[in-house]
Amino acid sequence: MNALLRHRRTPRFATIAAFGLIAWLLPYQLGGYAIHVVDIALVFALLAVGMGLAMGIAGQINLAQVAFFGVSAYATAILTTHEGLGFWPAALIALVATALIGLLVGIPALRMQSHYLGIVTLGLALGFINWTTNAEMAGGAEGISAIPVPPMFGVDLSSEYLYYYVEVVVFAAALAFGLFVVRTGLGRRMMAMRDDPLAAGAVGAQIPLLRMTAFMLSSVFGGLAGILYAGLIRYVAPDTFNIANMFLLLAMVVIGGRQSLVGCVVGAVGLTLIRERLVDYPTYAQLGFGVVVVLMVVFAPTGLAGIPARVRTMVDRRRGRTAERTALGPFRPYRPAEGGTGPDGEPVLEIREIAKHFRGLKALKDVSLTVRRGEIRGIVGPNGSGKTTLFNVISGFYRPSGGRVLLDGRVVSGSRPYRLSMLGVARTFQNLRLFGELSVRDNLLVALDRSRTRAIWRYALWPVGIWRQERRLHRRADELLDRFGLTGFAGAAPGALPYGIQRRIEIARAMASGPRLLLLDEPAAGLNGEEVRQLAEIVRSIRDSGVTVVLIEHNMGLVMSLCERVTVLAGGSVIAEGTPAEVVADHAVIEAYLGDSAMAGMPLPDTSEVTS
Ligand code: ADP
Ligand code: MG
Questions:
Q1: d(CA 387, ligand 2 centre) in Å
Q2: How far apart are CA 111 and CA 612, in angstroms?
Q3: What is the DSSP code string of 19-42?
Q4: Cα–Cα distance for residue pair 556/606, rounded to 1 Å
Q5: Helix H or strand E segment including 425
Q6: How far apart, in Å, are the Cα atoms of 11 and each of 50, 53, 309, 351?
Q7: Model confidence over 429-457: pLDDT tens digits?
Q8: CB of 399 closer than 6 A to ligand 1?
Q9: When you count CB atoms within 10 A of the terminal residue's CB, does the N or C end of the chain come out lower?
Q10: CA 446 to chain centre
Q11: This prediction's pTM
Q12: Whose CA is nearest to atom 7 of ligand 1?
């Protein structure tokens, strides 16, 4: 079996066949009203899946789903009744229009944080509701009736029984596509963005474009639902697209489980059925849904779909079967690069007179340094001296207030993090930033995926290409897991693992992007003596494979044993540079350290922790 099949919970053929059979036979068991309810439930299920993609998978608050739904239904209604178009041509135009509006909603995403975006989407929903009730074209409170029955090769789709089959086919195809997205590169990037947008950017995810994609995907599902609704009811009115239904939809997604598309479907179908039961008590129903949503958010934030996993974790914990029992494997060194390495190559990283000011605070003043190919450069300095800020400038998180950064002779300062990742800069973070809800393997897969975010057009036009790429990525993830001794943790959630293992996963993730420059921000912090020794071995092997390394570190033993040259920062300026031995004997350096009581924890020259 290939790697992909082994690692993914691919639904078995038998399961799909069983669902197909149930779906086929269901109408035979249902009365006229019941089939109507089921038809409505399928429309809501489509809406919920779209909303789940934006909210649960991509982490973008989307309160415009009901507006996407409405735009498409109204467009179909207007084009068929006012313009005299056939149902399907009208539906196609409606779908394209809805997708364009989805893109439009996503445009603020280029500049805005996601909670503001939530307000924008709510504004859009309210604006749309306003339009439907007031515009003459939309028929006001009366709405638009007499939408024609969709023609279908002579099959009479005015029968809700037959219409059901059309819906099932559209729904199954849409759900399959959604699941395909979630389980492949695009979905992983969106989930990485949800868990930690900064870290996702640092491994090559183009965040603004991904956010727009999330809204567009959501709107396409909303658009399909709108078309199906227009063909089913053949009448549209403002009532259907109001805020109450928006919140019902939100409840479906939260209760079902926003991080699982299947959960969204369960929530949508379940709540539609419950709502039908409570149709005589609408106020209580609303209130009840509200209470359940609050309870869910508090006690089961991953919704119904998340409960099995939570139960499994609980059982495992009770039986003492935690991931900690699996041993971290040994690190398998990289093959050394041809021609050997050493600090004598051409410059890879040139930092020229970089300054970074935070309002009044000058975190970096006029910092210059050059790192050559094959070097392990140490950067030391008291806390607050600007070391992390320097990394943030190099990796594109901060725009420098002055000066330039050159990578292989090219000016890269001012580039976005994903660009720098593509150019071969990788980093780890002082405070770990792993993607918490992704497995260890998926953490690596996000970084292994070097495709441009704009290559997502392939999802629409050439999914086979995506599938092939997935298989390649999974193979390489397996190799990488093995190299870093992480195979035993491949399926684990990183948050539950011991600190030392998380640190190693972060280095593996950085290496997954195939960098030429690796920035390590205090990688030994919190590690025990043996782990520090392993770290030294890993860093040396990475360098020997041809990657240039810059290492911020407080553990002077590690710095002394690994680095050919050390740069000392204090108060945002370089105060010394040279071999480790030169630097520790430097007067200014001793002064800087002794003058900073916060650095009491930092040993001056002490090689006891690392022996090489
Ligand atoms: P180091 O990594 O050497 O301990 P940092 O680079 O994290 O130091 O911080 C250097 C100085 O810049 C500190 O005084 C810190 O408070 C300040 N600083 C860092 N990032 C920001 C920020 N985003 N906004 C304001 N001040 C910051
Ligand atoms: Mg720091």
A1: 5
A2: 49
A3: HHHHHHHGGGG--HHHHHHHHHHH
A4: 6
A5: strand 425-427
A6: 21, 19, 17, 51
A7: 999 999 999 999 999 999 999 988 777 88
A8: no
A9: N
A10: 9
A11: 0.90
A12: 388
